[in-house]
Structure formats: structure tokens, C-alpha cells
Amino acid sequence: MPTSTTQLYSVEVRDVSKTIQNATATVNILRDVAFRVPRGQFLAIMGASGSGKSTLLGLLAGLDTVTAGRIVLEGEDITDLKEDQLASLRGRKIGFVFQSYQLVPTLTAKENILLPAELTGLRGDWETRANELLERVGLSNRGHHYPIQLSGGEQQRVALARAFIIKPPILMADEPTGNLDSQNGQHVLDLLLQMNREEQTTLILVTHDRKLADYADRIITLRDGQVLSDELAARPVEV
Amino acid sequence: MFTGTASKIAWRELRASPAKFLFVIVAVAVGVGALSGVKGFGSAFKGMLLRNAKQLIAADLQAQTYQNPSPEAVQKVERIGQRNGEVTRVTETISMAAAGRNRAPQMVSVKAVDPRVYPFYGNLTLEPNKPLKELLKIDTVVVSPELLLRMKAQPGDTLRLGGQDFRIAGTLVTEPDRLASGFGPGMRVLMTREGLARTGLIQFGSRAAQRFLFKLNPGVNLEEIKADLKASLPRVYLSDYREGDPAVSKSIDNSTTFLSLVSLIALIVGSLGVAMAMYSHLQQRMDTIAVMKAIGARANQVISIYLIQTLWLGIAGGLLGVAIGAAVQKSFPILIQRLFALLPEVAWDWSFSVQGMSVGVLATLLFTLPPLLSIRNVRPSLVFRRDMPDAAVNARKQWRNRLPAALLVAAMLGGWYGIAVWLSGSARMGFYFVAGLCVSVLLLAAVAALLLAVLRRVVRASGRSLPSSFRHGFANLYRPGNQARSVLVALGVGVMFTLTTYLLQTTVLREVTSEGPGRSGNLFLLDVRNLPEVTKLVEAQPGVAGKLQFVGYMVVRMIDKNGIPVERLQLTRQRRDQLQTVRITTAEGKPGSLAVQSGRWWNASSNKMQLAISEDAIRWFHLKLGDVVHFQVAGKDETARVVAVFRRVARAPGMVRYDLVAPKNALAGLPVVYYGAVQVNPPSIPVVEEALFDRFPTVTVMDLADVLKRIQEAVDQVAVVIRFLAAFAILAGVIILSSSVAGTRYRRIREVAILKTLGATRRRITSIFSIEFSILGLVGGLVGGLLANFFTKIVAEKFIEATFEFDWFSLLLAMLGTALLANLAGWLASARILDQRPLEVLRGE
Fold first, then answer.
1. Stretch B508-530: mean pLDDT, rounded?
2. Helix count (H) and strand count (E) of chain A?
3. Per-residue pLDDT for B131 more than 70?
4. DSSP secondary structure letters along B479-506
């Protein structure tokens, strides 16, 4: 594939399979999954529990290794990268939002937001950026609080701010509203979509909630580790 | 830079669980404290010995011998002394004495000096505070306060010693050369040489230490004088002010090395505890580690957090340890103040503190390396689901994974070897230490694995016939992440140490109680000369059960062998000197503890002078079957042919040592000294002692109970240190168990939630966990107990020539005790697990 074409896409998944061996049998979690995500697209990955959607997200982020196939992120083939190279790539290119927030309990809200910048060692005025993000998620007065002192919704907003700190080209979210009540869930979703628009990030969201997926530009549905459907939303996709 | 954030996280995690990390700090501190304390005190002590060498021998030069020198030899020595300055003679021995209202005779340590000149250096502390020459006359003594206390006497009372009466003129609080004393600490009686001569205690063959003290003129040639003294006195032992007392220095070095290595074992077990605590801590931090990796942290960055944490803990433990070490150094002098007039001034020595700190931090790091490096294997995908099974690892990858592990083990062993060499100052000792450690740990791990495997097979074979609580409890041992083997090794090490100390102690005591001439008797008689009359007197006393059993010996001077004078025999100087005062033991028939190797033993009734010799005597003195030996005893010349060579097949009773043996009847008329044993009903012992003391005041009587008490006291002093360290090892085992349980906390919480949801009562869950902990404790106790018995047997039979029977009771006690401890530790770590509401847990999954 010519480089120029590759660079049009944020994510390319080429015939990816994932197999695991447990004590009694071999389990095929993903089979020959293939798709490409143009830059700036909001892709929702749907599927029932056990369909392989979280595993796929993990593979896309280089959190786990594929059994077969290749994955290219922002023009860089990550399939054969070593653990530390993957970590470094995640630090530079991927923001994460998890269902259960996953903040570091021993760091304050602001320190959590600053963590990716410190890990990557990138130069920049991160303090100002963190303050600005805190303000954008409505927590400018909660920066010195520890996660345990924040509500679920507040923790997830801190996680959102953390995901955007280094202005990553790709944002991955795993059921970001799954642990929240509907009001807080809606608030977090609105913020996510708003920030995604403002930062012009490619957003890949894993959910089993159809209503949430309906916000996406495109929906890929998995069943038993295979792509069941790949639908574009009615509105035009900006490439 | 990430270091700032890493330090921040490290510090806040420490602050969040102070109790958990306090253990880590204490574990390191105890090891470091023991180490720096022992090392620091050893060094302070040696420094004191060197600084005060003159006071410690009360002279510039000391010549000591345990033989009674001939008048000619004494003259020679005195001439050497007078030529080069001044000389004085000190004689020490043990004997029986009685004083005050309580007439029961007791053993005392007698020291005879010339009060006009003794001591050349250092001071005696006397009560009343008068010069020694004013207090000591031919009919007076000064005694230690302990003697007054135990004999219920006071100054002015009469002390009866060697059949003579002496007035107690004062008390002797300290004497400078107590350390150089030929006999151990005891109730001291200080008297004049003329006074000692009155008692008749010192005769040919008596047990006595003779010390010649020299005060030398400036500029004399010390080496020349020492050479002259060596030529004049057989088997002389010299020490001078420049070197202190080499034997004492050496024994301090040996003790310091031994205690340092024991402390190192404590530190190792403690570090193992630290490693387990760290492992459990990392298990609980798995989510955070995965999250950090997911958002871009490289493995080294995450490792740096926990490395910083470990370093801080090691340093904090080290600092606390240095403080403990200082306290240990301070308390040592209190323990030994009874023995020494001069006590080392214990000053804080930074070099030992640095050494202790470094060893502490290094030890902590060495053991925490594996859990720290395992951070590399934490998969960031854990952020999605904790229970995602691992993908199968192919064989090549497995080998690739094993290589770093092997390198890690090699690095750890190398580290321990380095530390042991550093502490002991010997590469050989370092090697033995590490090899011993490896063998013990491997043995423990192998036995523990074997026992668990057998148990597993039995449980499987029993199927559903076993109660379900037991099956579940047992299955828990194989729960992923459960450190059953590590726990068993740590508990086993602790139990092994404690039990070995206890078993060796009881073996030594039992050996002393069961031994003695004829292996029967609780009253020992030493320096018996008039055997028939002593026997008659003793056997006529009330409460004496059985016959007095005795062995005789005499000290002879060998003149020649097969006509070749001793001076021309090709022997080492030491052995040649030894032949000047060699001991011949008497025997009628062949003693049961010996087996004839060549030649023939004489008939029991034989009165012909002949010799049977041991294999040692052949090696030492180059004797052989058929040799004719000419020797002198009490001025008489005797000739004997070597008719038999024997080897020892069992330990000889009591203090008997058979090297040169002659027929008992052949020694009639010669000055044979006997020692014997007799069984006396304990209440009658004072009566027998008094009767003997009245008629035969030079016979020393030792009550076995008293001897045992003294031995027990001596053994206890050493045992208390080892026990403390062993107890610490057990504590570390308990903490390791707690940490291991805490490490599987997440899984336990889920199990409890599921079991509760399915209808299990608290009681049932309690019994499942209790069974798990009990199995760990029982197996740990069993393994440690078995090995303790095994090691005690080896040590007893190879090193202290004692017999050892497998102690089943101790094994049972070890198993039950360890099971109890394991339950305590396990429940401490899982107490709140039972209180979790199932819904809360299952929802939060």
C-alpha cells in the first residue's frame, strides 16, 4: 500500500486474529478482522459480551499482541514493536478512557492529568494545559483532590482530561459511561464528543449501548470474534 | 523528568499502608542491627584489648603453662625475669572452700600472688580500699562479693580451704587480668603464695595454671626473652603487651564471624520477608501498573517507582538497624561485665554502621529484584479484564524467559557470596555460607514440594469422601499467585533454626547428665589421691547409692623411645614439649569405648608396665606397636613396651581421654590421681560434700546439678542470641505468610463473594481458610522439624560426639505451633475479607 494512502488512515487493521490457549482448549477470540479508520472518524465498535470488542481495542492500542495479521497506527506498523516501544507509542499517540476510570490512586486529579506528559518526557507547558483541561471538564477547583475524594462522574472527567493532555491523534474509549448513572453518563459523553471535535481526534469507542453508538460516524459490530457488520452513519464522513 | 512523579507515587503508597511497610523496615532493621552491633562490639573489644594489653595481663609479658614446672625450670624463668626487669608468679586452681554460717563447701577459683608486686599494671578494686599487701597475709584472703553472697559470709569470717583456715580480709571487686585467668569465672579467692603452699592444694599432677608475669626494663629484646622462655618452660603460652592476648583476639574474631553470619541468616530470612511483602504489594498495585503502562509508561519507569520505594525502605530499615546496633553494642558490656574489669568504651563507629547499612540495602535489593523485574511482565491489557488467560508461551520463548531468571539467580548468589565474604573476611567461609544456604533452601523446597505433592495425590485419590471444606482448603494452596512453596521455605527455615538450637542445647545437657565415669553418678570427685580411703568414706555416707566409679591418671615425662632421647625424635616442637608432661590413663581390662586394632590388650590382673596407644598418639608422637618407651614419674624411672593399638568406637565417659593407657595394677605406688563419680540422693549431697571436705580438703567435689546450672547458664547466653534470631526468622515466616495471603486478597475476596452468594456460611468459609493455613503450618513445621532433627544428629555425632535420638515430641510441637502461627498470620491478613458484601464485590468486578 502506498505511503500516501496509509497516511490517510489513523488505524489500519489487516486480517487480525487473536487466539489464546487456556488449560483445556484453544479459544479464537478474533478471526480475520480487517478495517481502516480514516483520520478524525468517530468509530463505535459494538457487540455482545464476549464478542471480542475489548480484546480488539487492546490490540489496537498495542496492549496485547496479535496472533496473526498486522495493525498500523498513524502510518506506523505496531505489530512487531517491543513492549517499551509500544508504551512509548501509546504515550505519544493514544489517549485512553476506561469504563472504571483507572486513575492512579496515589496521585491527585491534576497529577493524574499530567502523568502521560511526564511519562513521554515531551516538552511543553503542561501545567497550563492541565489547568485548561481541568477547567474544560468543570473541575478547576478539584485539581488537588485524590481520586478517592471524587465522585464517579468526576473521576471519569479527570480521565477524559488525562486522555487529551498530550493532544493524541487517536482516542480510545472502553464503555466510558458504563459505570455512571444516566445523568453523569450523558455529561461525560457530551464532554467527550465536544473535546473530540475541538481536538480533531480519531475516536474509537467500544460499547454495547446502541444509543451511545448512534453518536458515531461509523459502527462496526462484532460477533464471535468476526466483523458482523460495518455501517456508516447517515451523515457524511469527513476524511 | 519522571523521577519526581515516581518518588511522589512511591512516597504516597508508603504513607498509605504504614503497617505493611513498618514490617519491612523492622525486618531489615533487626538484621542490620544484629550485624552492626556484633561487628561494632567485636571491633571495640579488640581495640580495648590492644589499648589495655598491659593491664589485661597485668604485665609487659606473660608466660603461662598448665603444667607444674620443675624447680629448675622456675629458677631459669626467674633468672630471665631478673636479668631483664622484674618477675612474679601467679598460680590459679580450683578447689573446695567453706565459710560463714552456711558450712556447705563450694567450688572456688583460687589465685595465689605475691601482693608486694602484683599487679605490675592495672589496679585491683578492693574493699576496704587498702593496698593488697596490707590486706593479704599468709593467713588471710580476699574474696569476690559473689562468694560472700553465696556462702552467706562477711569480711572477718573464716574461710576453710585445703584443710586450713583463712580470715576474709576484704572483697575483690575487680582484677585487671581476669581475662587472662587460666580458669573460668567463678567465686574468686585471692591469697598469698605462702598461703597457697599451706593448703597443699598444688601437688604433682594437680590441675593448676601457672603464670609468670614480667615487668621489663626499657630497651630489652622481647623476642630474645620469649625464645629463652620457650626453651625453659615446656608447653608455654606467651603473650605480650604489643599483641594483646592472641587467643582472646582470635576467639573474639571467631565469635564475631559466627554471630555475623547468624545475623546475616536473619537478615536473609528478613529480606525474604521483604521480598514477599513487596511481591504482595505489587500484586495489589497490578491495576495501577497496568494503567500506567496503558497510558505510555515504559517498564523501567514503573520499575523505578518501586525501586525507589525499596531503596527508601532499605535505607529506613538500615538507619533503624544502625540505631538498634548501637543499642546492642551498649548492652554487650552489661552482659559480660562480670568477666572483665576493663570494659570496652563503645563509641559509635561509622564504618560498621555504613557496612550494616550497605548490607541491609543490598540484601533488600537482592531479594526484591525478582518481584521488581516481574513488573516487566505485567500486561497492560489487565486494564480491560483481570482474568484474561495468558496466551500459550512457546518453548523457545520459555527458554528465553528462563535465561534472565537464571542470570538473576546467579546475580543473587553472587551478591550473597560477596556479602558473606565481606562480613567474614574469608572467601572460603563465604563459599561455605552460600553453599550451605543453597543446600538448605533447596532441601527445604524439595521436601516441601514432595510433601505437598504426596498430599495432593492423597486428596485426589480420596475424592469426595473427604469433607468439602478440606478439599476447598487444600485446593486453595494451588490458587494462582499463592506462594505456598515460598511460605513453606520461610516457615521451614525459621522452625529449623529454632528447633535445631533447642535440640542441640538439650542434647548437650543430656550428654553431660548421662556421662561420667561409668555413666552413673551425680557427684563428681576430682583430684582424688588416697583412693581406698576416699572410696570407703564416700560409700559409707547416707544417701550414697552404688559404688564409687573412678579412672586414674598420672603425668609422666618421657625420656626416650627405643633408646633415642626425646630431644632427638623427629617431632614438632609442640609434640616434643607435650612429651615433657604427658598423661597416662589407667585401665584394668579394655574399656568398652575402645577397640583393639593391632596387638593384644593385657589381662585385667596384669601388673606389668606396658602401654596401649591410640591412633592419635601414633600420629602425634610417632609411636608404634613394639616400641619401648622410657619415662620418669615422680622421680622414678619406668619402661614400658607398646603392646596394643586401639581406636575409639564410642565416646569415653566423662572427661576421660584415652591416648596412652597403662594397666592399673602396674602403677601401684606411683602418684596416680583419680577422678570418679557416684550416685547420691540429692538431699544427701551436702552431707557427702561436707564429710569429704573435712577429711580430704584437697578433693574437689562437683555437684552435677550445680555443673548443669553453670553449663545451662553458659549455653543460655549463646542460645539467647541464636533463639532471638531464630524467633525473628519465624516472625519473618509469619509475615511472609501474611504477605502471601494479602497478595491473593483480590482472588480471595471474589471467592468469598461467590461462596457466600452460593449459600456458604461464614463458618464454612472460615473453616476452608483455616484448613489452608493449617496445612501450610503443619507442612512447614514438619519440614523444618525433620531437617532440624537431621542437622542436630549430624552436628551432635560429628562435632560434639554425642548421641542423638530422633525427637518426635519436638516435631509434633513444631507442627502444631507453626500451624497455630500460620492461622494467626493468615487471619490477620484476611480478616476483613469475610465482611465484604457479595453484591458489592461482584458488581465492582
1. 64
2. 8, 10
3. yes
4. STT--HHHHHHHHHHHHHHHHHHHHHHH
Q: B529, B203 in Cβ contact below 8 A?
A: yes
pLDDT class for B179, splitting at 50, 70, 90?
A: low
Rounded to the nearest 5 percent, the helix, strand and coil shares of chain B are: 60, 15, 25
- Using CB atoms, pick whichever of B8, B298, B389 lies closest to residue A84: B298
What angle, rounded to 10 degrees, do the helices at A109-120 and A83-93 form? Answer: 120
Query: Which residue of chain A comes nearest to B12, CA vs CA?
Result: A106
Alpha-carbon Rg for chain B, nearest whole angstrom, is 34
Contacts of B391 in chain A (CB under 8 A): 19-21, 65, 67
Instruction: Give the separation between CA B713 and CA B717, rounded to whole angstroms.
Output: 6
- Say if residue B716's pLDDT is above 80: no
> What are residue B34's phi and psi, to 5 degrees?
-60, -45
pTM comes to 0.65
Residue B788: phi, psi to the nearest 5? -60, -45
CB B400 within 8 A of CB B393: no
Within 8 A of A107 by CB-CB distance, chain B residues are: 5, 8-9, 12
Distance from CA of A131 to the nearest CA of B (A): 18
In contact, A18 and A66? CB cutoff 8 Å: yes
Q: Please state the ipTM of this predicted complex.
A: 0.81
Note the pLDDT tens digit of each residue in B723-767: 665 666 566 666 666 666 666 666 677 777 777 777 777 888 888
- N- to C-terminal Cα distance for chain B? 35
Cβ separation A84–B12 shorter than 8 A: no
Other C-beta atoms lying within 10 Å of the C-beta of residue A38:
16
The gap between the terminal CA atoms of chain A, to the nearest Å, is 18
Peptide bond into B128 cis (omega under 30): yes
Average pLDDT over residues A91-99: 89
Res A96 pLDDT > 90: no
Q: Which one, of B427, A68, B216, B218, lies nearest residue B226 by Cα?
A: B216
Peptide bond into B119 cis (omega under 30): yes
Residue B704, pLDDT > 90, answer no
Selected residue with higher pLDDT from B321 and B519:
B321
Q: How far is CA B784 from CA A143, B493, B507, B726, B776, in A?
A: 54, 6, 18, 12, 12
What SS3 state is found at B673?
Answer: strand
Instruction: Extract the C-alpha cell encoding B490.
Output: 520461610
Length reported for chain A:
239
Residue B332, pLDDT > 70, answer no
pLDDT, tens only, B404-443? 777 878 888 888 888 888 877 778 878 887 887 788 788 8
Cβ of B381 within 8 Å of Cβ of A21? The answer is: no
- Structure-block grid coordinates of residue B238: 606467651
Alpha-carbon span B689 to B710, nearest angstrom = 18
Q: Are A162 and A154 in contact (CB under 8 A)?
A: no
Please spell the DSSP secondary structure of B86-118, one letter per residue. Answer: EEEEEEEEEEEEEESS----EEEEEEEE-TTT-
In this structure, the strands spanning B594-599 and B564-565 are unpaired
